[in-house]
Amino acid sequence: MKKLLNDPSDYVDESLAGLELAHPDIYRRAAASPRVVTRAKPIRPGKVGVVSGGGSGHLPTFTGFVGQGLLDACSIGNVFAGPSVDDCVEAMREANGGAGVLRLYGNYGGDRMNFDMAGEMLEMEGIETTTVLAADDIASAGPDEWRKRRGVAGLILAYKTTGAKAEQDGATLAEVTEVARKTTEATATIGVGLTSCIVPEAGKPTFAIGADEIEMGIGIHGEPGIWRGPLRPADALAGEMVERLLADTAMAGGERVAVLVNSLGATPLEELYILHRVVASELKAKGITIGFVRVGRYATSMEMAGASISFLRLDRELEGLLRAPATCPFWSNEP
Amino acid sequence: MKKLLNDPSDYVDESLAGLELAHPDIYRRAAASPRVVTRAKPIRPGKVGVVSGGGSGHLPTFTGFVGQGLLDACSIGNVFAGPSVDDCVEAMREANGGAGVLRLYGNYGGDRMNFDMAGEMLEMEGIETTTVLAADDIASAGPDEWRKRRGVAGLILAYKTTGAKAEQDGATLAEVTEVARKTTEATATIGVGLTSCIVPEAGKPTFAIGADEIEMGIGIHGEPGIWRGPLRPADALAGEMVERLLADTAMAGGERVAVLVNSLGATPLEELYILHRVVASELKAKGITIGFVRVGRYATSMEMAGASISFLRLDRELEGLLRAPATCPFWSNEP
């Protein structure tokens, strides 16, 4: 297993310790649990808290997106395993500024169960909470069953819009929740996987895939996609991904879209930009304007090779919130 | 070959096309050559130009660091091959605001030859130029022969200090050059490689390395390092890297240092932070204060697994320049 680690069972805690040591002005691990990361400074009284969480192994998702204009706190599980109920409770307590707390995370059964249970406990403490799930992976269920979809890289765009809304003076829990709902419902993602990652405690690839084989529609834990077949040229793959996203979202000429081209880990920036060429030209040909774009590693599966493309249909509010400044090592405030 | 590409001979140009399409407010390919990337806006008259260049396959190095507070222009070669003389000339012309142009790049024979020739041509056009070479890889030559060292990830810290200095009103070519010189001479880097990358036009791994084997001191093109041996725990590797850097730089208690923990590509953030834990604790034990830190993918070898650690001995000026704001997709202005 070619990973830079010590005891595999220490992978997550050592990694979080390093994160806090590297960025002490951004992140703080909660006193109550090393698996809860909050902002370095306590939440502003009256601010709606935005909390997320999920398994480790996806950095900078989820934890990395704690920061000003993004998340207030995050609960973290083992690699590819959901956070504990206690840690979800603790993350929400940390994010409680008296104006309620939104739980915004990916649609996975274990995470839902634990976050829901934690939410009930918070309600008993008199803290109002809401839930919005990211369910953007179009390969995981059809458009009529979109609520069953898994949450993947599109979640990051929801972090950004929701986090920006929550920074606005006087924004209410209902308003922040509505931005999250609107963003997640307008987001669609599809991924393509080239290699498996290695979960440290397993010590071997999560799934087998042939030397020239790829999987269209793969999930960020290696969940099966739509088809497996031989590697095709990047333009053909990107073309198919764009076509599937356009068909799913029924986006039409004259609309504006945010684009996220995301590496699943090992795939280099050079190749993401090769894909983005196709995204840009296909959208232009359809008369759809790219209003916002990010290319890089946002939601990974450690060293998995592959990429995903996300589209978020924009309205004026969402576009403004995407462009609002944020402070976090994994977000650049380019124009 | 598991890469997302089309014809391997189009890898670089398609990638640069995507870069420009994704970030049109940051980057512009020069009219005279698609292998020269400049800032979207022409250089401010009277500003010293800072130019770099090198082979492709290291994104975000070199091209990605064109931006406000960083580089003015960059000439790009094929994967792991230096830029042409013509493109070096063109990059310097684009970066000429009438106050001279600094060439700041890594110490590789081909790049030197072409940049020197280009510099002579510019001088004939009446444009004053200077050169500073990054030579930070301590594995590539001993401290007494440090000028023979290769330039690796430490170059990015020099981009940052030099680029920030060049933004200051009235900064002269001599002053900007001096900041670059001071930064490069105070920077030391060591890398460890776990796997090879694949050069697109070669289509196979650049070098063979056993399934449990690693190479300490590897270069960013796979150049041989100090030793090859079985993979060790991350703490042992990071400990050795820190020890080698401290021995080379003779840094002592009471000093301040900037730290860059860099992935060579596939190695995920989780593992970089595991390494950073060790860096932080070893430096603390020595009484050395970390004044600035970045962890992420700054100088890669496409999908190579491995990491490097760079130290830059700080003085007040360099620390301030590192913290100055910059605008570029690959730089976050965290505190």
TrEMBL record, chains A, B:
Keyword Kinase among UniProt keywords: yes
GO cellular component, one term: cytosol
Keywords: Kinase, Transferase
Keyword Transferase among UniProt keywords: yes
Gene Ontology annotations of biological process type: glycerol catabolic process
PANTHER family named in the record: TRIOKINASE/FMN CYCLASE, TRIOKINASE_FMN CYCLASE
The name this protein goes by in its record: Dihydroxyacetone kinase subunit K
Source organism: Skermanella stibiiresistens SB22
